[in-house]
Design goal:
The complex is a heterotrimer. Chain B is 53% helix and 8% strand. Chain B is an alpha/beta fold. Chain B has four domains: 104 residues, Fumarate Reductase Iron-sulfur Protein, Chain B, domain 2, CATH 1.10.1060; 52 residues, no CATH class; 121 residues, Rossmann fold, CATH 3.40.50; 120 residues, Rossmann fold. Classes of the chains: A alpha+beta, B alpha/beta, C alpha+beta.
């Protein structure tokens, strides 16, 4: 434990209030990981500020004691973005959960970072509006976390990710100062700092207020469930749809292994067990346009040998179709104590061959691997069920994970589409970027966070020579995970 | 770098480990339960979330943390509403985990204090003994009518004053009269059901029990009310008094096995949820008993009700009892029944599936949290501004009635079955 | 240029073809007579290295259409042109992505993508606009309503930093959170952090039907509310409202535009376009016109009153557009509004320094009234009068300076030209 921790806790209590500071060992124990259970760290304290000023006081206290700190939303992230540095302080934003303003005339909402994604859409619904980015964890994840990770979701194909919906941010900088980036009427003069902060995984400061753009609820929605003999035909259909100029709001594929897992579980959705792949297509827009679009997709699917094309007749059936997609996570989760939800992107045209390679890698390592993915974006999510109590299996999961990333990069892809780098993929950044590229990223980080006190050890791999020869060179870098 | 879990060995013994540990492993730590949890929403603490609590349980089972202060606090701060089970994609049975944890805590004698003593007295000395309960309620009723209770109030310790504040007005003797043992079916006979009347229900909600029996009879079912039935054991199980719970469940399983019936109908969601899990306490013996249990709304919805003749012009908010919606997955049936009453307009409110904060004697053990949770519920109900609030569980009825009175809501609070009964009676 | 010797040294380092002396071009009061035009990324890297070593400052130039946009350079020695960095390396018609060199003219790229069945989601004003210039200045036209801002089209960038270091960010895939989103930082940074050499772009599907309609406006302010409502309908790709004077330029010989003109472009599935056209005919008395009209809106947007005038842009909340128009109208500005984007363009003829001061004051007032921001897009240097043309202020400038210092410590790239003198 960090020297002087007792003093730290007292100071934090003074800064944010006794009720808003956790420090008992069992309390800290539950903060040892976020949604990625493979990586753990042990904070010295957790604070739960209720407003921006309290965040500033907490940050300044951390600075006074020279301990690193990390912002955390709901802890649903899958790359270790909210993982606490050993001996550091978790600044949990869950109590900053108010929708500060809804401005339907300008289709804008101003929220605190702890507002749950789905709650924002619920609040906007009476005005016929909603918040478009819909990560699969939207019922629990927070807008602040979404900003940190630039979260996507099944509907990003048409509506984009978080970065396309954030207009302005209030940020507590790593030195405790407050900054306002962007304006509600659009970009502020100068660099697009909002664009730089969205997706920066909490390393550039702590977001304390978010101004987002809301969208009008679509006039009409159509959902199709297509069943194919093999995943290649499903992928080719996705390619046909994209080339045809249609822009569905979602194109999701569930592979054969996942179908089997779903049908074996309590989430059985009545899918044929011999289905090689299930493709869910969702279209939204004017009712007038959707009828013909549905027919075009039906035609494309048929010509790729779809064995079944169902169009949802009502919301209940739509929900049933999506259960086939959403149940996958739970069904896979039940196969073993831990679930590793991998994340990588390849050009959409390369999906069939990459999938084949991914499955082969899983088999070679003897792992329970299946795929559920945002096919329209080329965003793969190989799910690996495993047991972290088994060190050998854990090692195989990590090795297979790396191989999958290599295959994706070789196919022209990248190593994460929506989960972020965090600690999970930090050491694979080199697969994609050379030292100069990483150095450019470091320049941006250093402009906000010069000594690395804010969420250290994330995104950018520490240059080995630097950490070894001069441990003080990067300040907080050496605290975690070296 | 990935950290393998340090304790790869067998789980720590003694912590009801065989039953509990494997179930903790169902949690993949996704966090989807967080926003469904009333205590997380209120505190924002991971520790006070379902995911955090499962993590604590697993940590104890693996010997990574002690079963100490924090785990005990969290095990009882939890309302046991099981909203997390509805949210969980991996099927973690949180309610069962919680009961095992509390049983372990009780077994080790880790919980003390006045709240604990009041709870133990109520759960083991009062509820399982209908006559004691009846006598106490009668006394309270007399005291209330003579206003003796108010005179005594200043002399009670603070905690007991709080208990007093929670007490509803005791219904008249007539309402508390026991139901006949057999009630014949009306019209064309469709079958026979047994009715579970519960321990507190006859004393405080006799009217709802009578209404349930009437509606069942009205719909062509002969209603059998076995005299020697008793408390279901749910509250004892929730409190970790598993031996007592098991004993009560066994007695009821025997009692209801004597009669042949299409179903064992229950109008108290907390009871039916626990009765349905009897096989876990009693094994095969409990399975037959558990399998016949039906919530009254679920049963009537499945068999189809005869159209009520009377009209009730009212905007009605239905509020889901946690143990009905999360414990048994019964969500639409009560709404469909209410919607069949001519004149009733079902109005949605913002938070029907959230806990109201009743949760047994939670009001007494965690008054602040209970109040905060209730406040959210009342805010949603206030915004919807209904004429009637319907909910099918005694604890919820008491809690919402108390909250509504304090908040000055104009709505009448009833069991859904009472509304249906009124409609039948108004129709002649 | 500091002198003949420097010119020769650059020529020696980069080759004679890459360094060209010419009649000086004036950039905000600084005359630049030498253009460095590298032929490829290596040569661009060498050029920046050479400039950096010699502590020479460069004004980065694409098509030269927005050279008037900026604060006067703190120092400038050469123009660094991307004119030879042209070509389309990849145009993947299956995947709808393209990799394109920065100096490629937007018009040529648009044609090439259309020929392959895709749409380039960029429509900057200005003949000869290049891809690099469009991205660096985040330039938008009327279609940004449907297209979104340029940042939405950028998937990845190759950028040469001031030191000559070649870097990449992003990639070719349409969804990507691998590391910091530097592409957002570079896009719209006016070349002050690095020189974009190549970009991966996301293309849009071509709509089945496109139709431009014109409708009479009943005064700008009165038309705004309907304009906002219509601009929010799916399938409306562009919607512009111009005042009566500009109407004559946008749709010459048009009748019924005495109080201004609304131009609407519909793009999407044929039945929807047809239905919306009918509705517009009923609601706004709209009738079909040619796509030329929309092109002329774009031309107007990129123009500045002659012989001397100021072009300003105000970004305002939809609900405050009417308020934002007033101050500009008072100083006699001609007005073009994109209500869907919350953008107002004002064109103010200038006869004197007093006119310029009044125009600048009106701009500030307009931005305030619109609860947004305002900038001077073009004006003679005397009319800028030392104000920050981007209207930058506030403590956030310190963060921006900190970024600039780290990316361009020597101040080689466009020093002084960007917001707050970055």
């Amino acid at each position: 434990m960090h020297a002087g921790t007792a003093g730290l806790v007292d100071a934090l209590r003074a800064a944010v209030g006794r009720d808003a500071c956790l420090c008992r060992p069992e309390e800290l124990f539950v903060y040892e990981c976020d949604g990625l259970t493979m990586h753990t760290g042990r904070p010295a304290a957790v604070v739960l500020p209720s407003d921006t000023a309290a965040v500033q006081r907490a940050v300044r206290t951390c600075r006074d004691f020279g301990v690193p700190f990390v912002p955390r939303g709901a802890g649903t992230g899958l790359s270790g973005g909210a993982l606490a540095p050993d001996g550091g302080v978790v600044i949990e934003c869950s109590r900053m959960n108010r929708v500060l303003e809804l401005d339907p005339a300008n289709r804008i909402a101003v929220v605190q970072p702890g507002v749950v994604n789905a709650d924002l859409s619920k609040a906007a619904a009476p005005h016929g509006l909603y918040y478009a980015p819909d990560p699969s964890s939207q019922q629990a994840c927070t807008i602040g976390g979404n900003v940190a990770e630039n979260s996507g979701g099944p509907h990003t194909l048409k509506y984009g990710t978080t970065t396309n919906h954030v207009l302005a941010l209030e940020l507590v900088l790593p030195d405790g100062e407050r900054a306002r980036l962007g304006t509600r009427a659009g970009p502020a003069a100068g660099y697009d700092l909002v664009g730089a902060v969205v997706g920066s995984e909490g390393t550039l400061g702590i977001v304390t207020e978010v101004t987002v753009r809301l969208e009008a609820l679509p006039e009409h929605v159509e959902t199709l469930l297509l069943i194919f003999r093999d995943v290649v035909s499903a992928c080719r259909t996705v390619g046909d749809v994209i080339r045809s100029g249609l822009t569905p709001s979602a194109l999701e594929i569930v592979d054969q292994r996942t179908v089997a897992a779903i049908e074996d579980s309590v989430y059985a959705a009545g899918l044929p067990r011999d289905a090689g792949a299930v493709l869910i297509v969702e279209l939204d827009g004017p009712a007038l346009a959707l009828g013909p679009q549905v027919e075009r997709i039906r035609e494309m699917a048929r010509s790729r040998g779809a064995t079944r094309v169902d169009v949802a007749r009502d919301d209940a059936e739509r929900a049933r179709f999506w259960r086939a997609r959403k149940g996958a996570f739970g069904a896979m989760g039940r196969l073993a104590p831990d679930l590793y939800v991998h994340d990588a992107v390849v050009p959409r045209t390369r999906l069939p061959e990459v999938l084949e390679a991914v499955c082969a890698i899983g088999d070679r390592y003897g792992l329970k691997l299946s795929n559920v993915f945002h096919a329209g974006d080329g965003n793969l999510h190989p799910n690996i069920s495993f047991d972290r109590r088994d060190p050998d299996e854990l090692e195989r999961v990590v090795a297979a994970g790396e191989e999958i990333l290599r295959v994706c990069v070789e196919a022209g892809g990248v190593i994460t589409g929506e989960h972020g780098i965090g600690t999970e993929k930090r050491d694979y950044m080199g697969l994609l970027f050379d030292d100069a590229d990483l150095d450019a990223m470091r320049r941006l980080r250093d402009a906000f966070n010069p000594d690395g006190a804010c969420n250290p050890g994330k995104i950018i791999p520490t240059p080995r020579f630097c950490a070894e020869s001069n441990p003080k060179a990067r300040g907080y870098e050496r605290v975690p995970f070296e | 770098m990935p950290t393998p879990l340090q304790t790869a060995g067998p789980p720590h013994g003694g912590f009801r480990a065989e039953a509990l540990y494997p179930q903790t492993l169902d949690c993949v730590h996704c966090g989807l339960c967080l926003s469904a949890c009333p205590t997380y929403v209120e505190t924002g603490r991971e520790t006070s979330s379902p995911r955090g609590r499962v993590y604590l349980m697993r940590g104890v089972a693996e010997g990574r943390i002690p079963l100490g202060e924090v785990v005990v606090e969290e095990a009882y701060l939890c309302l046991g509403c099981r909203a997390c089970e509805t949210a969980c994609p991996s099927g973690v049975r949180f309610g069962a985990l919680l009961e095992l944890t509390r049983a372990e805590i009780e077994g080790r004698g880790l919980r003390r204090g006045l709240a604990k003593r009041v709870e133990a007295f109520a759960l083991t000395t009062l509820l399982p003994h209908p006559r004691r309960l009846r006598r106490l309620v009668s006394l309270l009723g007399i005291a209330q009518r003579l206003r003796l209770d108010r005179l005594a109030l200043p002399f009670l310790p603070a905690r007991l004053r709080e208990v007093h504040a929670q007490l509803p007005p005791i219904p008249s003797r007539a309402e508390r009269r026991a139901l006949p043992e057999r009630i014949p079916a009306e019209g064309e006979r469709r079958g026979r059901v047994q009715l579970f009347v519960g321990c507190v229900m006859p004393e405080l909600f006799g009217a709802a029990n009578a209404a349930t029996a009437r509606v069942l009879a009205r719909n062509g079912f002969e209603v059998v009310v076995p005299r020697d039935q008793g408390c279901c054991g749910a509250l004892q199980a929730h409190a970790g008094l598993d031996a007592c719970a098991r004993k009560l469940a066994r007695a009821n399983a025997e009692c209801f096995a004597r009669e042949d019936a299409d179903a064992l109908v229950v109008n108290s969601a907390g009871c039916s949820a626990a009765m349905r899990q009897a096989s876990e306490w009693l094994g095969a013996e409990g399975a037959a008993y558990a399998d016949t249990v039906r919530d009254v709304a679920e049963f009537l919805d499945a068999v189809g009700v005869r159209p009520p003749g009377g009209r009730i012009e009212a905007r009605v908010c239905y509020d889901d009892p946690c143990h009905l919606v999360h414990g048994q997955g019964v969500r639409d049936a009560p709404r469909r029944l209410l919607a069949q009453i001519p004149g009733v307009e079902l109005v949605p409110h913002a938070d029907p599936e959230a806990c109201c904060g009743a949760a047994g004697i939670y009001n007494l053990t965690h008054p602040e949290m209970a109040r905060a949770v209730l406040e959210r519920k009342l805010a949603a109900l206030r915004a919807a501004d209904p004429d009637v609030i319907a909910t099918g569980n005694p604890g919820c009825l008491l809690q919402i009635a108390r909250g509504a009175a304090r908040a000055g809501l104009r709505a009448r609070i009833v069991h859904p079955i009472e509304l249906l009964d009124e409609a039948y009676r108004a129709g002649g | 240029m500091k002198g003949r010797a420097e010119l020769e040294a650059l020529r020696a380092a980069l080759g004679a073809r890459a360094v060209r002396a010419h009649t000086p071009i004036e950039v905000d009061g600084v005359a630049l007579g030498v253009t460095v035009a590298p032929a490829d990324a290596d040569s661009l890297s060498a050029a920046l290295q050479a400039l950096s070593q010699r502590r020479l400052a460069a004004v980065v130039r694409g098509g030269g259409t927005r050279l008037g946009f900026g604060n006067p350079p703190r120092r400038a020695d050469v123009l660094l042109s991307t004119e030879r960095l042209t070509g389309i390396d990849v145009l993947d018609a299956e995947d709808g992505v393209a990799q394109v060199w920065a100096g490629t003219p937007v018009a040529a790229l648009r044609e090439a993508t259309r020929a392959r069945g895709w749409e380039l989601a960029l429509d900057p004003p200005g003949e000869g606009s290049t891809l690099g210039g469009t991205l660096a200045s985040a330039a938008t036209g009327p279609r940004s309503l449907g297209f979104g801002p340029p940042r939405d089209s950028v998937l990845g960038l190759s950028v040469v930093l001031a030191s000559g270091t070649r870097t990449r960010c992003g990639g070719r895939v349409v969804k990507n959170v691998t590391g910091y989103d530097l592409a957002k930082l570079y896009t719209g940074s006016f070349g002050t952090l690095g020189v974009i050499s190549r970009a991966w772009l996301r293309l849009r599907p071509r709509p089945e039907r496109e139709l431009v309609l014109r409708a009479p406006a009943r005064g700008l302010a009165k038309t705004l509310e309907r304009g906002v409502a219509w601009a929010r309908r799916p399938g409306v790709r562009a919607l512009a409202i111009v005042d009566a004077e500009l109407a004559a330029r946008v749709d010459p010989g048009s009748r019924g535009a005495e109080e201004g003109l609304v131009l609407i472009e519909l793009a999407g599935d044929a039945p929807v376009v047809e239905r919306d056209a009918e509705r517009l005919a009923r609601e706004l008395r709209a009738e079909a016109t040619s796509e030329r009209a929309l092109e002329r809106v774009r031309e107007v947007q990129g123009s500045t009153p002659r012989p001397s005038g100021m072009r300003v842009r105000v970004s305002a909340l939809a609900s405050r557009l009417a308020a934002a128009l007033e101050p500009l109208a008072r100083v006699g500005a001609q007005l073009l509004v994109y209500p869907g984007q919350g953008l107002v363009y004002g064109f103010v003829p200038l006869a004197s320094a007093n006119d310029a001061a009044a125009a600048r004051a009106a701009l500030r007032e307009s931005a305030r009234a619109g609860d947004g921001t305002g900038c001077i897009e073009d004006a003679p240097s005397w009319a800028k009068h030392g104000d920050d043309v981007f209207g930058a202020s506030g403590p956030e400038l310190a963060l921006m300076r900190s970024i600039k210092r780290r990316f361009d410590p020597e101040g080689v790239l466009n020093p002084g030209r960007f917001a707050g003198g970055l």
